[in-house]
Amino acid sequence: PYNVAKNTDRCMLVFRQVLSNEAVRFQEGGIPQSMNCADFKSLEILKFERFEQEETRLFKIFGADDQFCGWEVRAGGFVLHWNEFTGDAWFVGWNENK
Fold it and tell me: What is the reported pTM?
């Protein structure tokens, strides 16, 4: 309901009916290296896309952990648990003073 992106405090994204997932960490030069999604320490989601497919959905996530990373999950859906908004996202208004 807001006109700008918001930060939340710590939250949990729980995928339901997972069929597959594949995560990569982008090394220097943008080279992807496979990783286990359980190795995310504190994933900040920068872009979240959802694509409808027959019985499931494909979720594509681009984010930052200790490096930029990508994560694709095929699942029936997800539940997002969060507490509150803590303020505007860090990138809101970043170019207003240029």
Answer: 0.76
